[in-house]
């Protein structure tokens, strides 16, 4: 599995282009703008982009979906709870203030325990609500893409519509810190660093109360 991290857009989202090295089949996780840069990379690496996967439905993480779907005919994938939530008029109105392009509707809805396969690789969907109701992390040992749930030295905000700090901490403690400590954390923003590990976050993340699990 090859991982290309690219920080894009006004809100500096970490987008990930992940491909199977044998077949060139690929997914883009959280295309957050600067579509041309992502498209150029995929084309010059001769990747076949199958899925555009949203770790959650916030506009900064899905605003590239429209452009990349056009370029690659890739399917948009999201957790069912965020798809429901983000297509409600009051939620759309709240987020339209950001002025980012809207995502087309998802083609595929996923749930906890589902696998998204591309070439000989696959990512497991771990439902990690709290930052948003349908937030997911994507796991393929030793890699975990944590979106805005867990950052290097930080955790996601919970003051957006549908956020819950109780759910967020529970998701992190019971679903992420229980992964092997050597698991590489690839966050949705690079606020505290562009990469971490589950072990480092369990030991040192000040938002997790110093209580290490797993
Ligand atoms: Zn977010
Ligand atoms: Zn974000």
Strand and helix map with partners:
Elements (H helix, E strand, L loop, with lengths): L1 E7 L4 E7 L5 E5 L5 H10 L3 E6 L5 H4 L2 H8 L2 E5 H7 L2 H8 L11 E3 L4 E4 L2 E7 L8 E5 L2 E5 L2 E2 L2 E2 L9 H12 L7 E4 L8 E2 H7 L10
Parallel strand pairs: 3-4, 4-5, 5-6, 10-13
Antiparallel strand pairs: 1-2, 2-3, 7-8, 8-9, 9-10, 11-12, 13-14
The site of one zinc ion has 4 residues, from loops.
Explained architecture:
- With 214 residues, this protein is of the alpha/beta class.
- The chain has a single domain (2-208), classed as Ribonuclease Z/Hydroxyacylglutathione hydrolase-like (Metallo-beta-lactamase, Chain A), CATH 3.60.15.
- The chain has 7 helices and 14 strands.
- The strands form 3 sheets. Strands 1-2-3-4-5-6 form a 6-stranded mixed sheet. Strands 7-8-9-10-13-14 form a 6-stranded mixed sheet. The chain has a two-stranded antiparallel sheet with strand order 11-12.
- Residues 210-214 have low confidence and may be disordered.
- One zinc ion is lined by residues 13, 58, 60-61, 148, 188-189.
Class in CATH? Alpha Beta
How far apart the termini lie comes to 25 Å
Label the overall shape.
globular
**How would you state the average pLDDT, rounded?**
94
Instruction: Provide the succession of SSEs.
Output: EEEHEHHEHHEEEEEEEHEEH
The CATH level-2 architecture is identified as 4-Layer Sandwich
């Amino acid at each position: 599995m090859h991982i290309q991290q690219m920080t894009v857009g006004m809100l500096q989202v970490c987008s990930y282009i992940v491909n199977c090295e044998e077949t060139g089949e690929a997914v883009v996780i959280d295309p957050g703008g600067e579509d041309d840069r992502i498209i150029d990379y995929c084309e010059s690496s001769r990747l076949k982009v199958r899925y555009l996967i949203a770790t959650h439905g916030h506009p900064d993480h899905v605003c590239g979906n429209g452009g990349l779907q056009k370029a690659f005919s890739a399917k948009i994938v999201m957790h069912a709870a965020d798809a429901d939530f983000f297509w409600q008029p009051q939620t759309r109105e709240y987020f339209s203030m950001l002025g980012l392009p809207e995502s087309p509707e998802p083609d595929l809805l996923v749930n906890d325990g589902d696998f998204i396969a591309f070439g000989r690789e696959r990512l497991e969907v771990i439902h990690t609500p709290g930052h948003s109701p349908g937030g997911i992390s994507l796991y393929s040992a030793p890699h975990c893409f944590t979106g805005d749930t867990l950052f290097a030295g930080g955790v996601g905000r919970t003051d957006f519509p549908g956020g819950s700090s109780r759910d967020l901490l529970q998701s992190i403690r019971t679903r992420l810190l229980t992964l092997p400590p050597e698991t590489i954390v690839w966050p949705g923003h690079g606020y505290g660093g562009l990469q971490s590990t589950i072990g480092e976050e369990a030991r040192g993340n000040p938002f997790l109360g110093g209580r290490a699990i797993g």
